[in-house]
Amino acid sequence: MKKDTIQELLAKRQEGTLTDSELDELYRLTGRDEVMARADRRASGILRNRQIGAGIMGFVAVIAVGAVLLFSPTTQPAVETAATQTPAAPIEVPDMQQPPVQTTVESAAPQVAVVKQQPKRQPVTAKAKPTEPVVMCNSQCDADSVINDIWKFLTA
Description:
156 residues; mainly alpha; 0% strand
């Protein structure tokens, strides 16, 4: 009986002759309010989960960028300036009353540098090409010939 009533009300709705009281009866019989409330709760839960997920992903991205910046080496070395210091000891002024000390320089025998000759390098000669053919193929090669060439290479 319920199905017959729902079908009659749906037919009236399709024709456009459904009254407000009949529309309320159709909604009550089909449980529209409960279905819509359940769908709204489910949609709000999905939106809330997406917002939480987006917030977590944003937080993780900020942490990752901060870690990269914190642990990456600096690209420009720090500029360090050396401090100039004046000597703390006073400068000694020679006493003019004492005679100057004379130093003698003994001349040593001149040293002769010996230059060793490096051996001449022999020119590098190119190695002779192998007598076996090298497998070089394009799309026109036969599969059996390629396999045979590979077998020859492996058994050599």
